[in-house]
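ok so heres the complex, two chains, lmk if somethin looks off
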Amino acid sequence: MDTFLQVALSGVTMGCIYAFVALGFTLTIAAAGVVNFAYSEWVTYGGFIGVTLVSVFGLPLWLALLLTVLICTAMGYLFQWIVFTPLEGKHFLTTVTATIGIAVTMQALATLIWGPYALTLPTFFGTGVIDIGGISVFPHNMLIIAAAVILIGGLQIWLTGTDMGLRLQATAQDPTAARLMGIRIRHMRTFAYCLSAALAGLAGFLVAPLFVVTTTMGFGLMLKGLAATIVGGWGSLKGAVFGGLIIGIVEALGASYVSSEYKDGISFVIIIAVLLWRPRGLFPERIAEKL
Amino acid sequence: MVDTVRARSRLYKALALVVLLVIAILLPLVLKSNYQLGIAHQALIFIILALGYDVLLGFTGLLSFGHIGLFAIGAYTSAILVMSTGAPFLVGLLGAAVLTGFIGFLIAIPALRIKGHYLTLLTLALGEVIRLVIRSADSLTHGSSGLSGIPRPDIFGYSFRQATPLYYLLLFFAVLAILFVWRLKISRFGRAFMSIRDAEIGAEVCGVNTSAMKMMSFAISAVLAGIAGSLYAHTMRFISPEFFGLGLTTTLLAMVLIGGRGTVVGPVVGAALLIVLPEALRFVKDYYLIVFGIAIWLCVIGMPDGLAGLGRRLLKRARLIA
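and the predicted structre for the whole thing:
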């Protein structure tokens, strides 16, 4: 039982990271219809910027986290301006290919700036382990889970309870109708890009102490985020969160009880299974997608 | 009037093809070192692969991210057949083509039910699963250390060990692939593929069996990928699972898109360009990738029909002026 709880806890931790990534990925799909394959690099840059701020500028971790998220938000703003606006309303093939191109450029740039070697980021609470009822817990894992609960809860309240959140939802559901109702969909989309980039920066920063920061770090996370998006339902924010948690937990359980060799394959098998049996995901959007 | 214009343009096209073929045949006289010939080998192999991908993406409009998985299966099938059973090269090639064609057919069955981004993500997952299986099947594939010492092709006692004969063998297959895809495009199958791409419901209403045609498109592109894979294995003599990753998928996609999807000349130009350019620009390798990424983005936005479409537009303008 103890091992089960231990494994489940690490699964939930990774699940929260995947949920962040999937949320950020889904936000631009929902609000602007842009599938952003450069998202992997946004996450990578989050990790690298965090490392740079901590080890080169010697900033305290909290400040570095805040600055990382701010810099990533600015990056999102810049990107929507230059890269994404020409892509809105275009065919899926176009957006995917164009953003893959951007990802290639960003990855090459990251290798050029930070070098090909792995960098490390310290955790907030050292490497000590707390013992809670027989299972050992890394404080950093608890921080990730707490951040996820607060952020996702806050996002849910904001989306359903505030005027701006409702406007964003309206933009996601039907941009034309939203524009006719006097919603500035350009602003809403800009906001979605910035939020998406902020989530990427946060995910990159928080996941860095668990692994190491490399130029390919974000790519693996984005594949898991994609799996979460498929499991949860394409374009559904709620689905992204649950999908992320499901992928994280199933992956952790599979790695410890079946085979750790196939750990990375698990999420792909989940993608294939879900697409074959429930192509619209487990938590599909209420509004049917136009085919 | 229209007929003469069309006949003349067909004549020009045929003439350009013959000139290109002559250049290709004479190329080994210019390329002296094995290194340069090696690049030419790769370009010819990727021309076959890109042509197959174009059948799926450009003709039928299906975006698959798992095509490199089929390429890998072709390479491994042929290498294992030849190395472990001592079968001749042609048997390996045939085995690769049959197996990848069959797997392409199998992939098409679930792919018929889903469309658009779902299809792309399904094939992405399938491609990665294929790669993981290859990496894990240690006894057969030597896992992540790869297969080395794959023999060069040998057909009826004639060895293609040397770089120049191998070049002509690959050129033969590439020309065969070009003729096949060109013939396919103007056949009723090609027209059916393109009608599915442009208006699937319309195609169905007009009596096109869209399911059968999609399966056929998957299978044809898979067979070409298998042939390219087999040729790749026996040319490079070393294959490892890491090579067949998503990075190569990106390159393949860029070849077809930059060259011009839906055309025959597009993938040929795209593949040759994207194999030769990185080698020519080796001295600025880090910067090459930066420019490559931006070039993909620019090409998609500003030149949606690729170089082939650009060329056609320029030709039309020149004709209007004249």
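quick notes: Residues 16 and 22 of chain B are 10 Å apart (CA to CA). thats all i got rn
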